[in-house]
Every structure is written in C-alpha cells, then in structure tokens.
Amino acid sequence: MTQPLPLSQLLCFALYSASHAVQASYKPLLDRMGLTYPQFLVLTLLWETDDQPMSRLAQALQLESNTLTPMLKRMESAGFLTRSRDAQDERQVRLRLTEKGLGLRAEATEIPACFLAQSGLDPTTIRSLTDEIATLRDRLRAAQT
Amino acid sequence: MTQPLPLSQLLCFALYSASHAVQASYKPLLDRMGLTYPQFLVLTLLWETDDQPMSRLAQALQLESNTLTPMLKRMESAGFLTRSRDAQDERQVRLRLTEKGLGLRAEATEIPACFLAQSGLDPTTIRSLTDEIATLRDRLRAAQT
DNA sequence: TAAATGTAAATCGTGCGCGATTAAATCGCA
DNA sequence: TGCGATTTAATCGCGCACGATTTACATTTA
Does the keyword Coiled coil apply (chains A, B) (predicted)? Predict the structure, then answer.
C-alpha cells in the first residue's frame, strides 16, 4: 500500500479546482452577455447545430432533465432561445436560437481564445491536455456500467 | 482568426465534464460513508492536518464562507467534525475531527486508488496529468488579478 | 483609549447538479 | 385494436458555488 496522497496531488482535486478556476476566468466575459457558464455551453452546442431536441443536448452535456429543463426555461425567458414541442413526437422539446442567441456567437466564440492567452500555455499543449482529459472522462464513463 | 472550436474540443468543457465524471465515479464509495464529494475534500485536508481554522480550508479549496459555513455545519451535525471559536482570536472558527471523522480516513484514502483503477491509466500518466492541470489552474488564478 | 481600518464568518438570494418520482406521448406486440 | 413497456420532460428536494451584504472581533493609529 502506498501512502495516501495530499489533496494537492489528487487528480480529482486538480480537475475540481481547475474547472472552477476556468469558470471564474470566463465569468467577466460571460457576464457582459448575461450568460452563466452552463448556459454558454448550451449555446455553444446550438451554434454548432441549431434546432436540436433537448435529449441531444442532454447527451452531449451529460446532464438530465432535472438540470436542463429549468436552465432552458431561464434561457428562454432571457430571450436566447425558444422551446417548443416537436410536432412529429410531442414528447420531445426542440430548441431553436433566437436572433439574440445567434447574435452572441461571434463575441462568445472568442472567449476560449482569451482564456488560452490568460493561461499562458501554447495551443499545442492546450490541445493535448484537452485530449488527455477527455480520454480520462470517457474511460470513467465507460467504467460506470 | 481561427474557426471556433466545437464544444467537444474545448479545454473548459473537458475539465467541466471530466470533473463531473470523476465525482460520479466517487459517488457510490462516498455514499457508503455518508459523505458528499466536497465534504470528502474537506476531510482530506483535515486528515493531513487536524485542528485548522476555517480560513485555511477556504484558502486550500478556494471556497468562501458562503459555501463553507453551511457545509461545515452539515458536517458537524453529521458528526464528522466540531466547530469552535478560537480562544485567542474569536473571529476564527477552528475545525477538529471527531472519532467518526478520523475513522473514515483509511477507507476514504483508498478511493483515489479505486479511481485510478477505473480510469485505466497508469500512475505515471495520472501524475503528470495532475501536474499539468494544477499548473493551468495556478496560472489562471495568477492572471485573475 | 477612542476611532478608523482590517479581517473572519455568517447570512441571503440565485443558479446549477443530481437522486427520485411523476406525467405524457409513443412504441411494440398479442 | 388495445394494453403494457419504453421514452421524454417535468417536478421536487437538497447540497453545493458564488455575488453581495452584514456582524463581530482584532489591529492600527491618532
């Protein structure tokens, strides 16, 4: 048996604290647009593909209706998107960007670049780090059977 | 200008989703002990050094009193630790492990090892990944002036 | 020593995340 | 065709996170 690691050397804490630090660094930029960080993630998906069912966002973000439903309602009231039942399958809720939601795209997609600058790391390092973390995440999800 | 990246290639989302995946993989083990994930982080710090002021935990976790106060009260009611005002400086709240809190140490410090096994990554990779993520976090915090 | 300054927790409100449950629509199959 | 099983959202409760403010105590300084 090895000695227990201190918090500062735990991968779980590195991820936890880094994720919070990233959200904090995004915050001033998102505030100007009236977005929270998870809402920014939702819009990022809709900027890639507009008019998606909620179930697809849930899949991509690994979030469930108990998180997404109230969040999307707030985004609808704020005027970023519309929610409407699919005519073919009334169980599904389809999400569509409004003009306001579309209008934020150019400004918002600059944020990851600002973030990269703030981090002081070069793009290649950022890319490989992203891949390694995504691989870890996918393996954990797969093990979660 | 480069093209905007899809969500799946954003470092911020990799961190966000991996952090959630790690917490999900810890959950069944923590549930058995009656702990939440942030509570496990608090205990990890107290297992390293018992009898700390709340301000030191706040510094280590980068959390503030608005998060920690209610959380520590819950942990106190659950019997994991005690909270008491420091006699020398009545502004401070000192945290001490109870027998129950101490008793979880051996079992809980095994969790990161289980996690490592689940991840399917070798210890060396885990360590360098942890370091890289911590470096990124620290640079972002430093830029956050 | 009294007033100004600084520091540590606590409090309040809002928005996630998620377990558990419910409701409604669709699908599958006898 | 009809009825059980499945799928999709919605709802409810609780525990973080965090901005903003307040309270209590300590320290500095006039």
Answer: no
